[in-house]
């Protein structure tokens, strides 16, 4: 087995050496070793990819579709994305020049960050948030400016955004996750309008991560910054969550032609093109799978109500989740803000895995994220175990 030459130990990308592995994944791996544990740690749908989508991929393979696809994605898929965005959000994007198909939403984020950020640029990241943003931004040499939204119910207000810009300027960009991971919060049309006015006033580029856009519950509705500032917003989404296609790795980007030109170029540098049969499955999902997210949404809404009601009965507090498939709950008072200790104790003693809130950035301390993208049976048993754990604490 070869070992690296000792005089090459410092021959690496310095930015990468400054970044640690995902704490969320590391914690999940640690608790996975506990026998009988039920994990509510990872945002992984327990539902299966719908059969008609799987069949489209099989048919594509059997048709020997095994050659390089266009670097921005198959024309039929770019058209399907364009039609979907028009149908769902009344947005108009030219499939020939304003849409790019990527390897998952994570690949899309890399494409965008590497296209718009330079070393030293500052980008606002409202927190708590999916922590991979920080790492991807830092790889470009840019600086993520964390903005704690916990005092405003985990919603970034226009006033708070302007205050941060005044204090931290110059700022180049902002990224907004809506619906939110980890809090499940959803921005209203009025809230997005207010943010868009501040973004435009201060000449920022905005990036909206809308991967959970199909998973919004109750009377809430998903809106997009692109509905208010289409000339400066870059929209990212994909099929992973609403269509239970996390392993297929299919994402997309939509934005103004001038910025998309570089994003498409970057996507080509990073991946050349997305796998043919995955694109065929995505075409089927977007063109003929209109009912699939509706079915998934109904299942998740039921689970949310079950978990929210049960957790509130035993004293957990939360800002009401409205989308995605997470609950971000305040931990019992006995633990103060030590969410890591609470999560470790819950895993060891109750055999339920939840993710410490501090892993999602400032404002997450004292909370834990619970994913309800798990079976109702698992959720019932998890709630029973959590209830017993909390009752033993109280006694």
UniProtKB/TrEMBL annotation:
Family annotation (Gene3D superfamilies): Aspartate Aminotransferase, domain 1 (3.90.1150.10), Type I PLP-dependent aspartate aminotransferase-like (Major domain) (3.40.640.10)
Keywords: Aminotransferase, Pyridoxal phosphate, Transferase
Its EC number(s): 2.6.1.-
Pfam families (UniProt xref): Aminotran_1_2
Cofactor list: pyridoxal 5'-phosphate
Stretches assigned to the Aminotransferase class I/classII large domain: 37-386
A single MF term (Gene Ontology): transaminase activity
PROSITE patterns noted in UniProt: AA_TRANSFER_CLASS_1 (PS00105)
EC supergroup of this enzyme: transferase
Gene Ontology annotations of biological process type: amino acid metabolic process
Taxonomic superkingdom: Bacteria
UniProt family annotation: Belongs to the class-I pyridoxal-phosphate-dependent aminotransferase family.
Descriptive protein name: Aminotransferase
